[in-house]
C-alpha cells in the first residue's frame, strides 16, 4: 500500500512537471509553415461547418484540425489553441507509456521510469509544444500497443472495441497511423500457447482483432463523405514512393535515408539513453519476448520509412521511438536495483547522469531553440530558414496598428503556407485589411500592387525572395532575421 502511494505521488509530480515544461513560453517559438496551414484550416472549419473536411483538400486527415477547432472556440489565440492540442496529446502519451511499460513487464517501477524518460526526452518536448499532428500520432501509437497487448492477454470484447476506437483515431490523424493496424499481429508474441484450447483462443483473438480493425475502418470511412477523400492517397505520394515507382530504384535511397533517420534518432534521444536501449537489447538477457515486441514495433516502420521515404523529416520517426524509451526504462530499473543495493543516493546520481544531456538540450529548446543540439533539418525548418515564422508577429502587429483608422492592402509571397495563412489567422476578421497571396512572384505582381497603392496604403511581405529589383517601388519597413540563418523576412511599403 505504501509503495502504491509513493508511486501515485511520483506520477502526480511527473505530470505536474510535464504540464509546466510544456506550457512555459508555449508561443515563444514563431509559427511554423505547417502550423499556419493547420490552424487556418481549423479557423475556417470553426466558422463554416461546410468546410469541416477542409484538410482533405491537401490530402491531410482532419482529426487534429477538428480538435484545434474545438479549442479555438474557447481560446482566442490560434497558435496557443493548436499547440495545446499537442500538449494534451503528450499528456496522454506520458500516461500511456506508464501503462504500456507496466503491462509489458508487469512492473510499476519500469512504468514510472518510462514516463520519466518521456518527460525529459527532447524529442517529446519539441513536438508536444508544436501545433503539428505528430504528437497525436505518438499518443495513438502508444495506446494502440497497450490495448493490443491487453487484447491478446485478456481476449475481451470491450478491449477490442476500445482498441478499434484508438486505431481509428490514429488513422484519422495521419496515414502513419495505419502502422498500428499492420503491427497488431506482433502482439501475438504474448499469446499463451501453453494453455489448453489454444486453437480456440487464437481464433477468438483473430475475431476480436478483426472487430477492432473493422471498427477503425468504420471511423475512417467518415472521410468518404468528402469529395476530396482521394487526395489522401495523392498527397502520400509526395512523401512516400508508390510501389510501382519504388520498384525502379528499390534500394537507391535506403542507406541514405536509414543513416539520416538513425542520426536524428540518436540526436533526439541522446547518446546515454541510446546506450541504455542497447543495454536492454544486448546485455540483459531476460524478458526476451517483451524486448522483441518493443524493438519490432520500432524497427518495422523505421525500416519501411527508409525504404519508401521520398521526403522525410525527423518528426516522422517520433512515434516509432517510443517503444525504445520503454526498453531504456527497463535498463534503468535494472541499474537502479543493482546500485541501490549499495546506495540509494548513488543510484539516483547515476540515473541523473543518464538524464543530464536531455535536460541540457531541453533548456535550449524552451528558451534558445536556435542554439539547441537538435537535428539541423529541424533547426532550419522551425527557426532558421524560410518555413520558420520569424517576423510574422511583428508584421501582424504593424498591420493591425495601420488598419485601426483606414483600409489597407497587404500582398504576400506565396498563396499557400506560412503566407498568407499566418496573416489570415490574425487579420482575416478585420474589415480594414485585405490580404492576397501571389505566386510566382514576378514583375507584373509589383505593377498590380502599384495600382492598388494608388487607392489605399499597400504593403508586401517577402519570405523567400532575398534580393529585389532596384526598379520596384518598394520602401523597406523592416527586415527580421530568422534565427541564426541567412534568411530574412522582408516587409515593404509600396511607394508611388
Highlighted features:
single chain; 496 residues; alpha/beta; D-Maltodextrin-Binding Protein, domain 2; 2 domains; five-stranded mixed sheet; 62% helix; globular
Description:
It is a single chain. With 496 residues, this protein is an alpha/beta fold. It has 2 domains: 13-380, no CATH class; 386-494, 3-Layer(aba) Sandwich (D-Maltodextrin-Binding Protein, domain 2), CATH 3.40.190. It contains 21 helices and 5 strands. It has helices at residues 2-23, 33-47, 63-72, 78-105, 108-120, 122-127, 134-154, 157-171, 179-182, 198-220, 231-239, 243-246, 254-269, 271-282, 288-308, 318-340, 344-367, 376-384, 392-402, 418-427, 443-453; strands at 408-413, 433-438, 458-462, 474-481, 488-494. The chain has a 5-stranded mixed β-sheet with strand order 2-1-3-5-4, sandwiched between helices. A hairpin with a 6-residue loop joins strand 4 (474-481) and strand 5. Helix 4 (78-105) runs parallel beside helix 7 (134-154), helix 4 (78-105) crosses helix 16 and helix 16 (318-340) packs antiparallel against helix 17 (344-367). The longest helix is centred in the first third of the chain and has 28 residues, at 78-105.
Strand and helix map with partners:
Blueprint (H helix, E strand, L loop, with lengths): L1 H22 L9 H15 L15 H10 L5 H28 L2 H13 L1 H6 L6 H21 L2 H15 L7 H4 L15 H23 L10 H9 L3 H4 L7 H16 L1 H12 L5 H21 L9 H23 L3 H24 L8 H9 L7 H11 L5 E6 L4 H10 L5 E6 L4 H11 L4 E5 L11 E8 L6 E7 L2
Parallel strand pairs: 1-2, 1-3
Antiparallel strand pairs: 3-5, 4-5
Helix pairs in contact: 1-4, 1-5, 2-3, 2-20, 3-4, 4-5, 4-7, 4-16, 5-16, 7-8, 7-16, 8-10, 13-15, 14-16, 15-16, 16-17, 19-20
